[in-house]
Amino acid sequence: MIQYIQVILLIVFFLPYQVFSQGPSDYQFPSSYQPLGSGARAVGMGGAFIAIADDATAASWNPGGLVQLEKSEMSIVGTILKRSEDVLSETSGQSLSNESLNYEDLNYFSLSHCFTFFQRNMVVSLNIQNLYDFNRTWAMSVPFPTETPGLSVEQTVDFNSDGNLSAIGLAYSVEILPTFSFGFTVNHWDNDLSRNTWETRLNYSLTASTDAMTDKTIFRSKYEYELDSGFNTNLGFLWQITPHLTVGGVYKARFTSDLSIKSTTIDINEKIVNWKKDEAPIVDNTMDINCPSYEYEMAMPASYGLGLAWKISNIWTVSMDVYKTDWDEFIIKTDNGKFSPLFALPSTEDFPVPQTIPTIKPTHQVRLGTEYLALNKDRNMVVPFRLGFFYDPVPGKGSPDKAFGFSIGSGLTKPPYIFDIALQYRHANNLGEDYQFGTIQSFDMNETTLYTSFIYHF
Predict the structure, then answer these.
(1) How many Å apart are CA 243 and CA 181, to the nearest integer?
(2) DSSP readout, 51-63?
(3) CA-to-CA distance for 282 and 215, rounded, in angstroms?
(4) pTM of the model
(5) Model confidence over 110-142: pLDDT tens digits?
(6) How many angstroms separate the CA atoms of 338 and 278, rounded?
(7) Domains in the chain: boundaries
(8) Distances in Å between the alpha carbon of 27 and those of 86, 358, 419?
(9) CATH topology of domain 2-457
């Protein structure tokens, strides 16, 4: 049993927000795994920011827009997240548990410098961005139906994960024409200059009881992960077609990195035999401790987006983004071949698995946003009002699962300071309902995130 669970945990728990199931090949992302950008202003507009990208967070949305900065600046973005997941039972149709998670983190930091060279406006920017978070907690008792008279089976799962993936990026943007600019960001992923480690802990028990015997299996694990030696590049352009209409595009290249895993697992089997009611029980304990290490290579998928921004007036802008991610490129390379960690397990000598990878279609996001500026010329202040809506699907077998959300935002601008705040809500029903989860039929997800941004011009 230890080898079977090890292989499952190796894949299920090194990816953020996945579901633990009895089956060996069906997993799901209840939270967004899309490599989007940062910043309270952009989030307040629903993430429709590719064709706007006029502050330092443009390095994460569309580096081609960085050249719009008129002054050098420092920016910092923080987040507070609350997520809940309501897991439904396949056998009863009732809720098994309602798990929640709360955490806060530094989402983005940048230093940007504006200059002119060969009569061309240019901007360079150093950025630290937290792209993927692995924070999660999950504790539940799952019913195990049985048709054997006198036999009862109970299983419990207690899982915790913490950590994140972040990258240090160097961005550059140049004004090629007065109406056209180009830029790129080179992101470096390692564990020396930025935090790229995370840890998972699992306690799992399965108890089978009859009048004569109780058989209890306890599995405990601690996995430490480290991502190292990875690079990826973001390319972007911004084209002002008319004084009112702007088009922007971004391409985020595939990201490949080494993945190191160190684990400590303990497998305990306890048998209690009561042959006679008036005699002391016979207890038989066995324990298996294993500390393996693994070296894999992980490739993240390419993604690309196109945005439009319509400046209705000097104080009112509307925008729309369409964004695509090719999840069939999400691959793990091992000594035994390649597989998709979304829906397959690695094959090992102890646990051979047929490498049958199902069809995985890309996800297409659609994001709409608007911003209205209230001006106070006497006090040299600007108060923005922002609203956004988005369709943010979850990758799945065949067609992705649907997820929707909205955001609102505001702030205060008084040179040389800018403060922005945004609240984003994301919801999905019946995630994974077409999968074979055993006792888990599907789950609903609600996620609320508060973003705050501070920018100082110098």
Answers:
(1) 15
(2) TT--STTHHHH-G
(3) 12
(4) 0.80
(5) 999 999 998 899 999 999 888 776 777 767 676
(6) 57
(7) 2-457
(8) 16, 12, 39
(9) Porin (2.40.160)
